[in-house]
Amino acid sequence: MNEQSAFIINEESHEKIVKEDEEEKRKELKRKKTNARQRAYYQRQKDLKINAGIIKKTVPKSNAERQRKFRQHNAEKSYMYSKLCVRKSKNIYNERGLITVTGKDLCDCLDETCPGCHFPCSKCNSNKCGLECRVNRKWMYDKIEIEGNDFVVKNDYKHK
Question: Residues 6 or more apart from 138 whose CB is under 8 A from it?
Answer without folding.
Answer: 90, 91, 92
